[in-house]
Amino acid sequence: MSKKRGLSLEEKREQMLQIFYGSQDFFLLRELEKLGPKKGVISQSVKDVVQSLVDDDLVSKDKIGSSVYFWSLPSCAGNQLRNVHRKLESDLETSKKRLVELMDQRDGLKKGREESDERDQALDKLKAIEVKYNELKDELGRYADNDPATLDAMRNAIEVAHEAANRWTDNIFTVRQWCSNNFPEAKEQLEQMYKEVGIADDFDYLEPSVLIPPNLAGD
Question: Of 3.40.50.300, 1.10.3720.10, 1.25.40.10, 1.10.10.10, which CATH number belongs to 9-72?
Answer without folding.
Answer: 1.10.10.10
